[in-house]
């Protein structure tokens, strides 16, 4: 019988584990590209619809708000239906508002579709679920972080590519108003294509698909026996889930907040052009290509030379670094200093995200979907809270300064999530057996 992979063979797609690894990060990349495709075009969209600061804040909040609910739902859905069917459904349904936003004719319709697009952000939970059930403890942190990081880079690519795509449309002779709409149809089409590929070439776990395994009376590793609701109840009763919910809100929440405000911040505050702002903002997202994977890899290595609680200590240190870097970014006086500071705190932020989900598979193995879903939703709660803070203050610099302090303080939640000696010993035994 097939078992979890104990190594990551990047240049292979011959096993179901590696096919899932590569296709899940690709699907995540497409979803993140679609999720943040609007953000770098907001200076143009702002002018077309005559948006106020409050309306832009509402749009940024809407972009991440619905993801909270969808992330809570898709984790248990993975336990019930399997990640293959869940991801396929999310890609197909998510493509509707992504394409729909290109046809918005008012602030209200744009806000409605932007809210719907947020569902694509739930792809992260399925990505982490799928790699968690495919890889053994000694490499699961690296697998989770690499898949999430490479997929996350879709947000950075969107920041850099979407303004160029719109410019290309304008150069073909269309108006700027039509150009941004045509550009936004592209990620919606990519989601539909990816849905077909994912359904055709992946399976739920090393042994096969959940529906077939259940029909054959074979126990499934990673899902609650009674399905999605049981998984959610088990996860919600675990205090470590809620501590990591907070820490993930303070790292991934900040990440998606920066994705939404960076381009317009560089345009308004430092007077950069749309293309320059897009490249600057895109550099933050492109850190995910290696930084998130680095966080998971370092977490695996720390656990190997010590124990499970070394993963927790690493997360604490990374979040302190993130908070300090965010304060530097908030107080940068020039565009060059701001970009430098953004890259510093971005490195810590992405690594902290990777380190968080290197811990997730060990929180409660009976309810992996519920755990991944709740903690993932924490990221969006953090982004929504940051959005409301900026709306209330009306000043981006003040908002960033306060967020830096909050992030550093939330690092204490990581320390509070330390595991008991029995859990540490159990994980050490499982790792030896898997090896």
UniProtKB/TrEMBL annotation:
<feature type="transmembrane region" description="Helical">
    <location>
        <begin position="178"/>
        <end position="199"/>
    </location>
</feature>
<dbReference type="InterPro" id="IPR011701">
    <property type="entry name" value="MFS"/>
</dbReference>
<feature type="transmembrane region" description="Helical">
    <location>
        <begin position="241"/>
        <end position="267"/>
    </location>
</feature>
<feature type="transmembrane region" description="Helical">
    <location>
        <begin position="54"/>
        <end position="74"/>
    </location>
</feature>
<feature type="transmembrane region" description="Helical">
    <location>
        <begin position="312"/>
        <end position="330"/>
    </location>
</feature>
<dbReference type="InterPro" id="IPR020846">
    <property type="entry name" value="MFS_dom"/>
</dbReference>
<dbReference type="GO" id="GO:0015112">
    <property type="term" value="F:nitrate transmembrane transporter activity"/>
</dbReference>
<feature type="transmembrane region" description="Helical">
    <location>
        <begin position="86"/>
        <end position="104"/>
    </location>
</feature>
<keyword id="KW-0812">Transmembrane</keyword>
<dbReference type="InterPro" id="IPR044772">
    <property type="entry name" value="NO3_transporter"/>
</dbReference>
<keyword id="KW-1133">Transmembrane helix</keyword>
<keyword id="KW-0534">Nitrate assimilation</keyword>
<feature type="transmembrane region" description="Helical">
    <location>
        <begin position="110"/>
        <end position="129"/>
    </location>
</feature>
<feature type="transmembrane region" description="Helical">
    <location>
        <begin position="273"/>
        <end position="291"/>
    </location>
</feature>
<dbReference type="InterPro" id="IPR036259">
    <property type="entry name" value="MFS_trans_sf"/>
</dbReference>
<feature type="transmembrane region" description="Helical">
    <location>
        <begin position="20"/>
        <end position="42"/>
    </location>
</feature>
<protein>
    <submittedName>
        <fullName>MFS transporter</fullName>
    </submittedName>
</protein>
<feature type="transmembrane region" description="Helical">
    <location>
        <begin position="150"/>
        <end position="172"/>
    </location>
</feature>
<feature type="transmembrane region" description="Helical">
    <location>
        <begin position="367"/>
        <end position="388"/>
    </location>
</feature>
<feature type="transmembrane region" description="Helical">
    <location>
        <begin position="400"/>
        <end position="417"/>
    </location>
</feature>
<comment type="similarity">
    <text>Belongs to the major facilitator superfamily. Nitrate/nitrite porter (TC 2.A.1.8) family.</text>
</comment>
<feature type="domain" description="Major facilitator superfamily (MFS) profile">
    <location>
        <begin position="20"/>
        <end position="428"/>
    </location>
</feature>
<dbReference type="GO" id="GO:0016020">
    <property type="term" value="C:membrane"/>
</dbReference>
<keyword id="KW-0472">Membrane</keyword>
<dbReference type="GO" id="GO:0042128">
    <property type="term" value="P:nitrate assimilation"/>
</dbReference>
<feature type="transmembrane region" description="Helical">
    <location>
        <begin position="336"/>
        <end position="360"/>
    </location>
</feature>
<dbReference type="Pfam" id="PF07690">
    <property type="entry name" value="MFS_1"/>
</dbReference>
């Amino acid at each position: 019988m097939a078992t979890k992979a104990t190594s990551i063979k990047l240049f292979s797609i011959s096993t179901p584990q590696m096919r899932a690894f590569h296709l899940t990060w690709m699907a995540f990349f497409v979803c993140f590209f679609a999720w943040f495709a609007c953000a770098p075009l907001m200076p143009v969209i702002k002018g077309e619809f005559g948006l106020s600061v409050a309306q832009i804040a509402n749009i940024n909040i809407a972009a991440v708000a619905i993801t909270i609910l969808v992330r809570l739902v898709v984790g248990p859905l993975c336990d019930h239906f399997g990640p293959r069917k869940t991801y396929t459904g999310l890609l197909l349904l998510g493509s509707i508002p992504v394409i729909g936003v290109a046809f918005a004719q008012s602030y209200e319709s744009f806000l409605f579709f932007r809210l719907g697009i947020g569902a694509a952000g739930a792809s992260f939970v399925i990505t982490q679920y799928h790699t968690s059930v495919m890889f053994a403890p000694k490499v699961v942190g690296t697998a989770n972080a690499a898949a999430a990081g490479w997929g996350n880079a879709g947000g950075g690519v969107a920041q850099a590519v979407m303004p160029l795509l719109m410019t290309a449309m304008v150069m073909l002779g269309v108006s700027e108003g039509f150009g941004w709409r045509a550009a936004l149809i592209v990620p919606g089409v990519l989601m539909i294509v990816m849905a077909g590929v994912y359904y055709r070439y992946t399976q739920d776990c090393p042994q096969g698909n959940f529906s077939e395994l259940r029909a054959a009376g074979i126990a499934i590793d990673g899902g609650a026996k009674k399905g999605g609701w049981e998984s959610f109840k088990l996860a919600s009763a675990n205090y470590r889930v809620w501590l990591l919910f907070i820490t993930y809100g303070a790292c991934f929440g900040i990440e998606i907040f920066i994705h939404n405000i960076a381009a317009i911040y560089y345009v308004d505050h430092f007077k950069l052009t749309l293309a320059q702002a897009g490249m600057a903002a895109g550099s933050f997202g492109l850190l995910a290509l290696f930084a998130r994977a680095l966080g998971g890899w370092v977490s695996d290595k720390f656990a190997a030379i010590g124990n499970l609680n070394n993963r927790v200590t690493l997360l604490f240190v990374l979040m302190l670094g993130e908070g300090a870097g965010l304060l530097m970014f908030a107080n940068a006086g020039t565009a060059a200093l701001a970009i430098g500071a953004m890259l510093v705190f971005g490195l810590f932020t992405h690594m902290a995200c990777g380190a968080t989900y290197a811990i997730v598979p060990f929180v409660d193995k009976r309810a992996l979907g519920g755990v991944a879903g709740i903690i993932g939703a924490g990221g969006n709660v953090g982004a929504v809270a940051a959005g409301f803070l900026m709306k209330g203050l009306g000043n981006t610099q003040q908002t960033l300064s306060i967020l830096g302090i909050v992030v550093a303080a939330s690092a204490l939640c990581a320390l509070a999530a330390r595991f008991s000696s029995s859990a540490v010993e159990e994980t050490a035994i499982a790792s030896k057996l898997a090896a």
